[in-house]
């Protein structure tokens, strides 16, 4: 039976990179005897222009009726003057929250062909393959009480609350252990339990959940040490699970190991119901429509969708291999160009198609 995919091309380079990703997905699926049924829907600026809403109800219904959601990017100059509440970005937040996507998966993989593009030494980053699982809808970004007050010296004070419940930690821990099972079976839980009670609870719950995954080797690390180890010896990490704030910082740090925005996929999943798979980069309005966009982050997002959303690891592997093969053959979009390589456009990377 066909796998139902809600496809949200969005704005800017979104439609261009979507086209390439769908063509490859189709080819990789055919090679493995799997069929996909794509249903396109509006989001972001394109949806505002057509319906007045950045995330129309019809789009939500399409997503809910699908096995997975594949999103490119939203936003652009045209909508930058709208008030915050009506901007394309709201569509993205509405999508993630209405699907209750509480787990954000961000891989940082350094391909040998691109190790020189990293800000770190090639020998430090070569072979890096990290998956960060970040809790996305709790922690200090959402905790209450929060606000401003005045202290007894009459000074203005700002405050937030870092709070996690057992069930919130449990569900993210399960996502992380499941992901680790599909990888090298090593999970590092990152918190600050030497200082924070919320982190003590985090460690307690993760340790408890670990009993259900005897094959996974669990370790614990304080966030400050983890941030340091990420730069000193990133190869020591396989899968990382952490809270919203620490994960925000660590995943941005990890992305810099790879040196290229155009290569980074992500997933936001709920554990039940469809997940959202999307590149980390935005809609790149500066290069939209010019056949300059690198479609690889989008292709790799489709690969994550196959691996984590559709349980099609063999299709995922085909897509990943196509990206590697194109790089091996020396094909580069402008953002990755270096001397001796062959520059191609977004469509040019459809040459990848022959490589599946
Ligand atoms: P951006 O990621 O769109 O672009 C940053 C720079 O990287 C630009 O120079 C762009 O040309 C380049 N770039 C990005 N993706 C690329 C690719 N695949 N291939 C080649 N070059 C690429 O971030 P920026 O400029 O801050 O935001 C532009 C618009 O995108 C804004 O409207 C912003 O709100 C939106 N945005 C949307 C996101 C999403 O849909 N998830 C995430 C981040 C920004
Ligand atoms: Mg961030």
From TrEMBL:
Q: Which domain of life is it from?
A: Eukaryota
For this UniProt entry, the molecular function terms from Gene Ontology, in alphabetical order, are:
3-isopropylmalate dehydrogenase activity; magnesium ion binding; NAD binding
Q: Which cofactor does it need?
A: Mn(2+); Mg(2+)
Q: Pathway of this protein? A: Amino-acid biosynthesis; L-leucine biosynthesis; L-leucine from 3-methyl-2-oxobutanoate: step 3/4
EC number(s) on file? 1.1.1.85
Catalytically driven reaction(s): (2R,3S)-3-isopropylmalate + NAD(+) = 4-methyl-2-oxopentanoate + CO2 + NADH
Q: Report the locations given in the UniProt record.
A: Cytoplasm
Example GO BP: L-leucine biosynthetic process
Query: Does the record's keyword annotation contain NAD?
Result: yes
Copy out the cofactor comment: Binds 1 Mg(2+) or Mn(2+) ion per subunit.
Give all residue intervals belonging to the Isopropylmalate dehydrogenase-like domain: 4-353
Keywords annotated in UniProt = Amino-acid biosynthesis, Branched-chain amino acid biosynthesis, Cytoplasm, Leucine biosynthesis, Magnesium, Membrane, Metal-binding, NAD, Oxidoreductase, Transmembrane, Transmembrane helix
Mention any one GO cellular component term assigned to this protein in its UniProt record: cytosol
User: Subunit notes for this chain?
Assistant: Homodimer.
Role according to the record: Catalyzes the oxidation of 3-carboxy-2-hydroxy-4-methylpentanoate (3-isopropylmalate) to 3-carboxy-4-methyl-2-oxopentanoate. The product decarboxylates to 4-methyl-2 oxopentanoate.
Family membership noted in the UniProt record: Belongs to the isocitrate and isopropylmalate dehydrogenases family. LeuB type 1 subfamily.
- The name of this protein is 3-isopropylmalate dehydrogenase
Question: Which species is this UniProt entry from?
Answer: [Myrmecia] bisecta
Q: What is the lineage of its organism?
A: Eukaryota, Viridiplantae, Chlorophyta, core chlorophytes, Trebouxiophyceae
Residue numbers of the full-length protein present here: 24 to 379 of 679
């Amino acid at each position: 039976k066909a796998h139902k995919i809600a496809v949200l091309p969005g704005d800017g380079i979104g439609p261009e990179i979507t086209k390439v990703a769908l063509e490859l997905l189709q080819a990789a699926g055919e090679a493995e005897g799997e069929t996909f049924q794509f249903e396109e829907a509006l989001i972001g600026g394109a949806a505002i222009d057509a319906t007045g809403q950045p995330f129309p109800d019809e789009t939500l219904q399409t997503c809910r009726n699908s096995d997975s959601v594949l999103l490119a990017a939203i936003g652009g100059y045209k909508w930058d003057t709208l008030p915050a509440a009506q901007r394309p970005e709201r569509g993205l937040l509405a999508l993630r929250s209405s699907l209750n996507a509480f787990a954000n998966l961000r891989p940082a993989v350094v391909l040998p062909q691109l190790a020189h593009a990293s800000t770190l030494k090639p020998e430090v980053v070569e072979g890096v393959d990290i998956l960060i699982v970040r809790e996305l809808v709790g922690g200090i970004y959402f905790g209450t009480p929060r606000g401003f007050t005045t202290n007894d010296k009459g000074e203005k004070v700002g405050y937030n609350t870092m709070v996690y419940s057992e069930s919130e930690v449990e569900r993210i821990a399960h996502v992380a252990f499941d992901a680790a099972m599909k990888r090298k079976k090593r999970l590092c839980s990152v918190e600050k339990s030497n200082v924070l009670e919320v982190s003590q609870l985090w460690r307690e719950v993760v340790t408890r959940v670990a009993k259900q995954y005897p094959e996974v080797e669990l370790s614990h690390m304080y966030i400050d040490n983890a941030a340091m180890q990420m730069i000193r010896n990133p190869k020591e990490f396989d899968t990382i699970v952490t809270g919203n704030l620490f994960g925000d910082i660590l995943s941005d740090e990890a992305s810099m190991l790879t040196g290229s925005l155009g290569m980074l996929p992500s997933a936001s999943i709920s554990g039940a119901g469809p997940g959202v798979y999307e590149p980390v980069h935005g809609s790149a309005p500066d290069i939209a429509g010019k056949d300059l966009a690198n479609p690889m982050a989008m292709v790799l997002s489709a690969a994550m969708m196959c691996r984590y959303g559709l349980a099609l690891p063999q299709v995922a592997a085909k897509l990943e291999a196509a990206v590697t093969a194109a790089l091996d053959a020396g094909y580069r979009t402008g953002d990755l160009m270096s001397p001796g390589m062959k520059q191609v456009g977004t469509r040019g990377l459809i040459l990848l198609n022959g490589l599946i």
